[in-house]
């Protein structure tokens, strides 16, 4: 058995308009991971997800889900996938309960009311089971989309911008659910414009720009490799300028003279923090407080896109 649940190889897609939305994309998604796909508007994320879910025809290349080709073995591969789309695609006159029953049936799964009840409960929709979709609030409709995507017990869940326009509380709730699903072994792929979210929740980060995958890397590794760190030293007494003996460390002195900042490479084993602190002591500078700051995923993302 392969350790990958989704395997995309040499995938290219040109829309009839002539727009090349994907260029030779290779991507392998591991069973049970949470992969966040980041990229600016129009980068090709939705196109990629739609091809994996069998909704858009690939131009060239191949896509397999659990070993099944998304074209040749469409039903087999699609059965394993739950998709939470960006936009609402639900009949407004249907009740909540009927719409999840329908979603389950669509993939040939036998009826299992106890399971569907647990899905609705985990999304705080059980009380609304007899309500029509049009009677739900916007946040509830979004949760219903997730319930529908989970109705047939998929192995892989795609969440395309799940938290766009969603309030903070619901967003928290969604991430809690994503965490629970992952514990059950569900693989989760999400696209988001909220990079702090990806930073918090993802195991790996993929960055897409102009139809190309720029990188796919473990989040921890990416943060360590590209995340500069800063050590900030708050002084007891203001300094008029950085002392000569500390020049080698290229410290930055704040305008009020009370803060020295040392910036170093967070991923390198060879930083000079210890030497710098020794030099501070020899210069007889008294410290009031010390704290560190790490460059965020958002800053890393922006600079990677600029480079590209
Ligand atoms: N059906 C279509 N016909 C022609 N061009 C399309 C079609 N769908 C998408 N595109 C184009 O393909 C490119 C990629 O779009 P896609 O929706 O995949 O991007 P995205 O990364 O999901 O963007 P966003 O973050 O805005 O959702 C865009 O330039 C878009 O205009």
From TrEMBL:
On the tree of life, the source organism's domain of life is Bacteria
Q: Which UniProt keywords apply?
A: ATP-binding, Nucleotide-binding, Transport
Q: Which Pfam families match?
A: ABC_tran
Q: Which GO terms describe its molecular function?
A: ATP binding
Q: PANTHER family, from UniProt? A: ABC TRANSPORTER ATP-BINDING PROTEIN
InterPro entries cross-referenced by the UniProt entry: AAA+_ATPase, ABC_transporter-like_ATP-bd, ABC_transporter-like_CS, ABC_transporter_ATP-binding, P-loop_NTPase
The name this protein goes by in its record: ABC transporter ATP-binding protein
Q: Where are the transmembrane segments?
A: none
Q: Which SMART domains match?
A: AAA (SM00382)
Domain named ABC transporter is located at 6-235
Q: Key word Nucleotide-binding present in the record?
A: yes
Identify the species of origin. Alkalimonas collagenimarina
User: Where does the record place a coiled coil?
Assistant: none
């Amino acid at each position: 058995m392969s350790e990958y649940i989704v395997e995309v190889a040499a995938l290219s897609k040109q829309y009839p308009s002539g727009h090349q939305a994907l260029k030779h994309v290779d991507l392998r998604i591991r069973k049970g991971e949470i992969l966040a796909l980041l990229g600016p508007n129009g980068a090709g994320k939705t196109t990629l997800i739609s091809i994996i879910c069998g909704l858009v025809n690939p131009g060239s290349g191949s896509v397999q889900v659990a070993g099944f080709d998304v074209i040749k073995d469409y039903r087999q591969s699609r059965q394993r996938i739950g998709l939470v789309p960006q936009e609402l695609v639900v009949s407004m006159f249907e009740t909540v309960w009927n719409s999840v029953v329908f979603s389950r049936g669509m993939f040939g799964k036998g009826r299992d009311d106890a399971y569907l009840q647990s899905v609705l409960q985990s999304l705080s929709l059980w009380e609304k089971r007899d309500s029509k979709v049009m009677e739900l609030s916007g946040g509830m409709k979004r949760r219903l989309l997730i319930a529908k995507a989970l109705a047939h017990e998929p192995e892989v869940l795609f969440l395309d911008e799940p938290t766009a326009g969603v309030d903070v509380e619901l967003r928290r709730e969604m991430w809690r659910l994503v965490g629970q699903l992952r514990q059950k072994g569900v693989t989760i792929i999400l696209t988001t414009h909220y990079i702090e979210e990806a930073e918090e929740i993802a195991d790996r980060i993929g960055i897409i720009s102009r139809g190309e995958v720029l990188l796919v890397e473990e989040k921890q590794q990416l943060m360590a490799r590209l995340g500069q760190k800063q050590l900030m030293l708050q002084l007891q007494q203001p300094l008029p300028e950085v002392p000569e003996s500390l020049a080698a460390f290229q410290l930055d002195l704040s305008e009020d003279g009370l803060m020295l900042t040392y910036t170093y490479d967070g991923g390198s084993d060879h930083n000079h923090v210890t030497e710098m602190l020794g030099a501070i002591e020899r210069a007889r500078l008294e410290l009031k407080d010390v704290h560190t700051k790490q460059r965020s995923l958002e800053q890393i993302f922006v600079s990677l896109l600029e480079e590209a």
